[in-house]
Amino acid sequence: MRAEAVIDLAALRGNIRALRARTGSAAVMSVVKADAYGHGMVPCARAAVEAGSGWLGTATPEEALGLRAAGITAEQARVLCWLWTPAGPWRQAVAADIDISVSGEWALRHVLDAVRAVGRPARVHLKADTGLGRNGAQPHDWPALVAAARAAEAEGLLTVAGVWSHFACADEPGHPANASQLAGFRTALAVAEAAGLRPEVRHLANSPAALLMPEAHFDLVRAGLAQYGLSPVPEIAGPEEFGLRPVMTFQAALAQVKRVPAGHGVSYGHSYVTAGETTLALVPVGYADGVPRHASGTGPLWIGGKWRTVAGRVAMDQFVVDLGGDRAEVGDLAVLFGPGDRGEPTAEDWARATGTISYEIVTRIGARVPRRYVGGDGGTGVAEGAGG
Ligand SMILES: *Cc1c(COP(=O)(O)O)cnc(C)c1O
């Protein structure tokens, strides 16, 4: 292999079980948007269903339809999709039994047109904006949206399966927005109930709220990052303190090892120049593979049992490491990040080194990097080896 992302499905299943143990009677939705945060949507969704997630969450309709196209049925998992534009595709979503998030009356009209065209009722989750300021209906639009949905439900055109909202600051437990959003959500629920809605699931919590705010669990928590074994609150606690294990290991084989003299420039712009005679190793992944260019001169990696640092600029396809006096061979393993228990850096270490969050580190691992799945269940649906 040149480079690969090894995806430990046993760790993923273990993380979901750890989350389920924390959330008690609330169900867990496995958020698998953005190719399961770079881990591979379909294999991760299947593993999540095996671990007991009866819900899958996606941003785009294409992702939701992709889950159904892969054979994940509505009996195995409800799929909620929340980022809609007028382009839909609404009819395909209704036909595929996708739960559709509705943030305004414009979306409800599209759903009802699709229901009439397809000839089967839809399932919708009404979304309230309780303070994030992103999607969802504002409090002044909420009663009319609720009333319109209730009227359509009474006509048998749809079921309001959920009422929901999303936090802005759940990763800062003391932030005043959390209490205010929780109160706003309770108000939105009361309005919906007073109008006669009886949603199956009321849901508000993302990973940080699932881990830190039991009062926000309601009937369902939507877990993304935590199920991939990364901490959504790294300033407060690492994954192991929540019983989570990182799922992705990103590694490459050294493509060149050579001695160079002192004063040798390294990579574009010569931002790194060798201090003395030394050994340089070439790592064959770059920003096209998701290695942030901001890791130039700062990104950590693990070669031959030692931490190293990216020397000079990260290029599109490769970067260089200065091994000093240490030896290495072409083909030796360079681990950029993994669970951390062999001593290698973690995705969180990369996030710190590059001024971002671990969400972005794993999600950006590029399509050019093959995913290799390990820890499958040995024959009842998840195969070892390449996939998704
Ligand atoms: C991405 C997303 C989530 C999952 O967030 P995590 O912090 O990764 O758990 C939950 N809900 C919505 C609406 C999202 O967009």
TrEMBL record:
One of its GO terms (molecular function) is alanine racemase activity. Residues 247-374 form the Alanine racemase C-terminal domain. This is Alanine racemase. The modification N6-(pyridoxal phosphate)lysine is found at K33. Its cofactor is pyridoxal 5'-phosphate. The keyword Disulfide bond does not apply. Transmembrane segments: none annotated. It catalyses: L-alanine = D-alanine. HAMAP family: Ala_racemase. Its EC number is 5.1.1.1. It is an enzyme of class 5 (isomerase). Catalyzes the interconversion of L-alanine and D-alanine. May also act on other amino acids. Belongs to the alanine racemase family. Keywords: Isomerase, Pyridoxal phosphate. It holds the Pfam family Ala_racemase_N. Substrate binds at R134, M316. Coiled coil: none annotated.
